[in-house]
Amino acid sequence: MRVEWAGSGPGLLVTIDRSSGAGLRTQLEDQLRAAIRAGRLAAGEPLPSSRELARTLGLSRGLVQDGYAQLQAEGYLTSRPGSATRVAAGVRATPAPATAVERPTTYAVADFRHGVPDLGMAPREAWAWAVREICRTAPDAAFDYGEAAGQRRLRAVLASYLTRVRAIAATPDDVLICAGMQQALNLVVGALAADGIGAVAFEDPGSGAGLATLPVPVDDDGIDVRALRRSGARAVLVTPAHQWPTGVVLSGPRRLELIAWARECRGFIVEDDYDAEFRYDRDPVGSLQGLAPDCVISRRGGSAGSSRRRDCGPR
User: Which of residues 56 and 101 earns the better pLDDT score?
Assistant: First the structure.
């Protein structure tokens, strides 16, 4: 059974459908809100008395009074003794969203974007199994807020993996879990600024990291450390495993030269160790951080230039 109230303007304002499964008061409140937001009930416009609207819609008067009271509490309606309930003057109509133009669905035969793997190979079944197992076995405390640096068990697994696969010198206490590249860089740049470092050098071609940025050229062996010395910077962002975007690997002698520069100027090397395991022409080269954990901050995550990856790295 459907009953309707049209109000004084064009179009139906409230339709009560007892067969819909939705609560009667919920239907009343939702449709009055929608009419006010759409401007079909203008600011200052009076609403029927609760007795009149209840009779029109076949509802109890108490239900309508409760609905009016809820909308008054939310600021949609106002009411004064001896006066009709009205639409509140401060409520502005929300313009209807533009209708999206439906476009035909197209599917790419091949995706040539850099840094994007075959998305069809995502281990859906393994992930679903892992989520089910965690939800089944995790204690209640696991769903509370954890450590700010990230769950210790996760940091222990990552530290073990990084030590084994990337030759990084790290314990769980050296690993910080971040929500993405931007957060990781914000934390590092903030720490560098607190240490009095106002400029960060970066590889050219490449991308900067915030603060004032100083481009330093890259050759066949990686970043030019002599040019880095001349820049006067005390911090540098590098991609030594395969420089982005040229793909150059920072050579062994150049790595030692870069570490010597950091120690001489009491500076820091921010290592973006993205996709380091993915090599087709040689075995993956170990992390720079393993050579000098005292002056290298290493970030682990997805492809350089992507803002959607998750990151972690020894501090």
Answer: 56
Q: Which H/E stretch holds residue 187?
A: helix 181-194
Virtual CA dihedral for 232, 236, 242, 247, nearest 10 degrees?
Answer: -50
What is the pLDDT at residue 97?
66
Element (H, E) at 260: helix 252-264
Beta bridge partners of 214: 201
| CA-to-CA separations, 37 to 13, 87, 260, in angstroms, rounded | 12, 10, 65
Per-residue buried b or exposed e for 146-181, using 16+ beta carbons within 10 Å of the residue's own CB: eeebbeeebbeebbeebbeebebbbebebbbbbebb
Q: What is the pLDDT of residues 244-273, one digit of tens each?
A: 888 889 999 999 999 999 999 999 999 988
Domain map of the chain by residue range?
2-87, 148-314
Alpha helix stretches (DSSP H) within 13-123: 24-37, 50-57, 61-74
| pLDDT tops 60 at residue 56 | yes
pLDDT over 80 (residue 128): yes
Residue 1 confidence (pLDDT) above 50: no
pLDDT digits 0-9 by tens, 149-185: 999 999 999 999 999 988 899 899 999 999 888 888 8
Pairwise CA distance, residues 19 & 16, whole Å? 9
Domains 2-87 and 148-314 fall in the same CATH topology: no
Give, in order, the Cα–Cα distances in Å from 118 to each of 122, 185, 309, 311.
Answer: 8, 28, 16, 20
Per-residue tokens: 228: 């880095």
Let me know if domain 148-314 sits in CATH 3.40.640.10: yes
For the domain with range 2-87, which CATH number is right: 1.10.10.10, 3.40.50.720, 1.10.357.10, 2.40.50.140?
Answer: 1.10.10.10
For the record, the structure tokens of 256 come out as: 């030692």
For residues 209 and 181, the answer to whether their CB atoms sit within 8 Å is: no
Q: Which residues, including other chains, have CB under 8 Å from residue 188's CB and lie 6 or more apart?
A: 209, 270, 297, 299
The pLDDT confidence band at residue 221, using thresholds 50, 70 and 90, is very high
